[in-house]
Amino acid sequence: MQRQEQKQVQQQQMTQDLVQRLPVLEADRLALTFRLARLARHNPNIHVGSGDLGWIADAASAFEEKLFTQIREGSGSETEKELRRQLVLLLDHRGLLPDTNEGLAERFGIDVSQIEQARQALLFLEPTGIGARTERECQYRHAIEHEDPRVVDVFDAIESGVSHQQMASALAISEEELARLERIVATLPKRPLLYEETGHVYPEVEVCVEDGELVTTWLSPELDETCVGNDREAKWWMTSLAMRNETLRDIWAVIESRQTEWLKGELVLHPLTRRTVAQQIGKHESTVGRAIQGKFAKTEGGIMEWRHFFVRSTSHGHSPFMIKRTLAELIQREKAPQSDQALAKELARYGYLVTRRTVTNYREELGFGNSRERERQLWKG
């Protein structure tokens, strides 16, 4: 009986450990490097080796100093301010604080109410959403601060399960206006703005063709093992990064073997699903989904999101990515702008059977105007 209880405790600890490592797997290269740069400011045993981004250390320093300044200038005792500073150091790569109050209270040896008070103080700092427990709570903070006060009302109504009709009636607004507010709620930031957006994408892997063969170079961040020593935090991160990078390499190996033609510059994507990859690498399908989000690859055809290598249909590749790519090529080649209906017919010639509405949505996502707008651009030269 005692042995069985010990086994259950071990399994629970293993599960908790994996849950703690999941955010590391989910993080993209930029966010992860930013988090490591923050850790390196306070722990000399953490030093990024390969995969580093030179400018990120300064950004990490400026981010924390901005928060520390707000804490220093805010109200509260020195003890309370110190606790807030300690919580800042625990913010994950998203700028969120998903740890439970109970876990944090045990870690610092204080009362749960003190943790909650410190957490609430963080929520009033800039950038908006800092220290939120979840991405949804971060969106709520943005809703509160939105210039239109009805946004938070709609947010609360959605969370409470209020029907569309009831919302419109309670707010005394039209269905169209409610739809607009709902779109605002749906697009509220899920994370605080930790650093200025650079507009650049930082790929995890670079693939080029040399003498007809694919050559793969990995750019994922890794710790310098010579600095780790016996430091517990540094060892945890080294293990977590190693697990992350191993999973990404396993997934990419399947992608590369399946989509070799595309990686060599041919416009061919073969059917590939997350389930197939999961079965081949011995992971759960959800793990594959978590791992590929926000990951990019630099290829012969440019930088591409990993998720676009997953195609649901036949050799034509009836994925949104392939349809959008073909649509973009059609629009870029046209001498006289065509209507969305005409473009739908053109796509059908390539084997892509989509509705006019789908063409409209994809065209707008690609940043192309309608036929009249494109015609005006042609006249302007």
Give me the secondary-structure topology.
Blueprint: H1 2-26, H2 29-40, H3 56-73, H4 78-89, H5 101-108, H6 112-122, H7 135-144, H8 150-159, H9 164-171, H10 175-186, E1 205-210, E2 213-218, H11 225-228, H12 232-258, H13 260-263, H14 274-281, H15 285-292, E3 296-299, E4 302-305, H16 320-333, H17 340-349, H18 356-366, H19 371-380
Parallel strand pairs: 1-3
Antiparallel strand pairs: 1-2, 3-4
Helix pairs in contact: 2-3, 3-4, 4-6, 5-6, 8-10, 12-14, 14-15, 16-18, 17-18
- What's the β-strand tally? 4
Please state how the strands of the largest beta sheet are arranged side by side.
2-1-3-4
Helix content: 55-70%
Q: How widely separated are the two ends?
A: 81 Å
Work out the strand percent: 5-15%
Number of helices: 19
Pfam families: Sigma54_CBD, Sigma54_DBD
Organism: Exiguobacterium aestuarii
Family: Belongs to the sigma-54 factor family.
Protein name: Fis family transcriptional regulator
Description:
Residues 58-217 form the RNA polymerase sigma factor 54 core-binding domain. InterPro entries: RNA_pol_sigma_54, RNA_pol_sigma_54_core-bd, RNA_pol_sigma_54_DNA-bd, RpoN_core-bd_sf. This protein is mainly alpha-helical. Among the domains are: 147-186; 320-380, Arc Repressor Mutant, subunit A (Orthogonal Bundle), CATH 1.10.10.60. The chain contains 19 helices and four strands. 58% of the residues lie in helices and 5% in strands.
Summarize this entry quickly.
The protein is built from 19 helices and four strands. It is mostly helical and 381 residues long. Among the domains are: 147-186; 320-380, Homeodomain-like (Arc Repressor Mutant, subunit A), CATH 1.10.10.60.
